[in-house]
Design a protein that fits this description.
- The protein has 149 residues and is mainly beta.
- The chain has 1 helix and 11 strands; from the N terminus they run βαββββββββββ.
- The strands form 3 sheets. Strands 1-2-10-5-8 form a 5-stranded antiparallel β-sheet.
């Protein structure tokens, strides 16, 4: 039976850690082109250790939806709607959702000293696109190439 003519079950212990990574976090693929033949979606988990921050990054043309499962991760980006770029921190709790538009530079942080943060991620591409960056910048501002490099 062709891969796209049946349902696929990916067990929690069968997630694939051989995916695009960012320093300070570990991504695990569940649904991907490689695992199930998906053509327009990628889904998996990200684990962020206690007192850890990821590198600055964006996800190219992917839209990214995040569901917080465990911990209180913080999502950090720059906003210049007030005129000057300002660092914005979104502190989350289990059950919360975050939406990251394409190309928006950000990072995830887990300030908790004892508890790992775990999130489920869904992307609008079949694979995890990760473009690591030396620093955050405002999308459309200085330093934005608008490309996924």
């Amino acid at each position: 039976m062709p891969p796209l003519a049946r349902l696929h079950h990916i067990r929690a212990d069968a997630l694939d850690g051989d995916t695009a990574q960012t320093g300070g976090m570990r991504r695990f693929a569940a649904i991907s082109g490689a695992s199930v033949g998906s053509e327009r979606i990628w889904m998996g988990q990200t684990h962020v250790s206690p007192e850890t921050a990821s590198s600055n990054h964006h996800h190219g043309a992917s839209e990214t939806a995040i569901h917080v499962v465990k911990g209180h991760p913080e999502f950090v980006f720059l906003d210049d709607s007030g005129g000057a770029p300002e660092e914005i921190r979104i502190r989350t709790s289990p059950g919360d959702y975050i939406f990251v538009p394409p190309y928006v530079p950000h990072r995830e942080e887990n300030p908790d000293a004892a508890e790992e943060a775990v999130v489920v991620i869904a992307r609008s591409t079949q694979e995890a696109i990760v473009v690591n960056l030396p620093e955050l910048y405002v999308l459309g501002g200085t330093g934005d190439s608008g490309e996924s490099a």
